Amino acid sequence: MKDLASLARLDAMAQAELCARGEISAAELFDACLARIDALNPVLGAVVTVAREAPPAVRAGPLSAVPMLVKDVMPWPELRWSMGSRLFANNVAQQHTPYGTRLVEAGVVCAGKTATSEFGLLGSTETLLEGVTHNPWDLARSAAGSSGGSAAAVAAGLVPIAHGNDGGGSLRIPASACGVFGFKPSRGRTVPASFASSDFGDMSRDHCISRSVRDSALFLSIVEDPSGGPRVGFVRDPIARKLRIAAWTRTIMGAEPEPAVRLAYDASLALLDELGHVVEPIAPPSFDGPALSDAFFIVAGAAIAGVVDMIDQARGEPVQREELEPFTWALIETFLERGPEALPRARAAFAEAVRSYGETTRSHDVVLTPTTATEPWLIGHLSPILAREELIARTARTVGYTPIQNIVGGPAMSVPLHVSEGGLPIGIHFAAAPQADALLLGLAYQLEEARPWKNRWPPYSIPRLC
Q1: CA atoms within a 13 Å half-sphere pointing along the CA-CB vector of 455
Q2: Is the pLDDT of residue 150 over 60?
Q3: Which of 25, 64, 244, 259 counts the highest number of beta carbons within 10 A?
Q4: Which pLDDT band holds residue 56 (cuts at 50, 70, 90)?
Q5: Is there a catalytic annotation at residue 71?
Q6: Cα torsion for 425, 426, 428, 429, to the nearest 10°?
Q7: Cis peptide bond N-terminal to 363, omega within 30
Q8: Contact at 8 Å (CB) between 17 and 40?
Q9: 129 to 37, 116, 329: CA distances (angstroms)
Q10: Where are the alpha helices (DSSP H) in 53-180?
């Protein structure tokens, strides 16, 4: 079996090619993945369930025999499906979603489930059920969230690729915090990854966190929904035309990023100019930040209130206080207190934001901002036991760029272009109009060529430690 570090350095496509050439077996790939998880996960807390037994047979497909991890908000048969909540601590999934079926057909092997914030609600992966997921760049810092377990696992080399989902930045933000590539597809681009439906679910998109752009592009082609419009397919090449890029730094709440983020952003402007693109700093859309933030959490509260009501009816007794985190209860209670007009008002706020965003950006191919306004934050900064008002205020300060893309429904990505002077990764955010996924992936390839990141490994990673 090849040593752990050499395999960890390979992306998913390279691992599949190695297996296809007969240089390593599917069993060896799987065993090496488990060895990497066992070696480093006790420190990171990225993986919450390990699938110790490989499937008896692996499908022939574009990612045949490649081990991956699945965020614990999506079911995978015979594995625990807790969604980061004590309410579902003993829940075991029974069947695949259409999304999971596509992955199996592509030949991937699920090696386990990754940590998430409770129901994917928070931008930090630290739950009362599972504990803390640490950032492999600095163990005192959060891997962000809610796909923090997946981002930490890929950044540390436990797997080459991991599933995540994104309802307001939940895939892109941890990708930025952990120095890896995170892409959110357009609304309707991929097959369903859930059995339920809600306004919050409609904003969420599933995809993967990866080290290479090509892995992300291939993954999208695997899970693409043919009924969602013209197919993207497997985007393989850098974009070959000049783009007109709108750029701003002000968050939805009207704040500016901290100095380290501003430096990374300015360096990105220079890189895009070097690549021949036309970057135009403009005034951001005119958002009612507080109304938009309130609408987002009302929609989240409505979704979780529906889950609680379903459980109440199914088991004949109310969900108990200790079964959900304090912040989750606060979202539910706020939604219920607002009454029947809460959701219509939230939808109206979203519609106004979409209108303003469209008017501001319609003349541009791409929008450029930071991914987050701050460097990766310390563990506890977005703890679920904080008061609702404080937690929402801290979230708005930190993650004030990404949620609008979920509301608009366009593709967006965090690209790991920079590391701060303090040794922490800083992602740069790019977004495009709905259905312009191929354009954005083409830009990602170009950026990856210009500023390669594949050999940039954090201190707590298999290549650095083994």
Answers
A1: 3
A2: yes
A3: 64
A4: confident
A5: yes
A6: 100
A7: no
A8: no
A9: 20, 10, 15
A10: 98-105, 148-155, 172-178
Three-state DSSP state, 22: coil
Please state the pTM of the whole predicted model: 0.97
Phi, psi of 70 (to 5 degrees): -115, 130
Out of 117, 146, 204, 210, the active site residue is: 146
Among 38-47, 52-61, 378-387, which stretch is predicted with the lowest mean pLDDT? 52-61
The residues with which 184 forms a beta bridge, in sequence order, are: 412
Q: List CB contacts of 401: < 8 A, sequence separation 6 or more.
A: 169, 251, 252, 369, 370, 371, 372, 373, 429
Q: Which of 64, 71, 82, 293 is catalytic?
A: 71
Look up residue 207 and give its two tokens.
């995809």
- The Cα 429–Cα 417 span in angstroms is 10
- CA–CA distances in Å: residue 358 to residues 318, 355, 365, 405, 433: 43, 5, 12, 11, 9
Residues 151 and 455: their CA atoms lie apart, in Å, by: 16
Q: From the candidates 117, 142, 150, 170, which is the catalytic residue? A: 170
- Mean pLDDT confidence for 169-194: 97
Tally Cβ neighbours within 10 Å of residue 370: 27
pLDDT band at 333 (very low <50, low <70, confident <90, very high): very high
Contact, 34 vs 52, CB < 8 A?
yes
**Active-site residue flag, 170:** yes
**241 burial class (0-12, 13-18, 19+ CB within 10 angstroms)?**
exposed
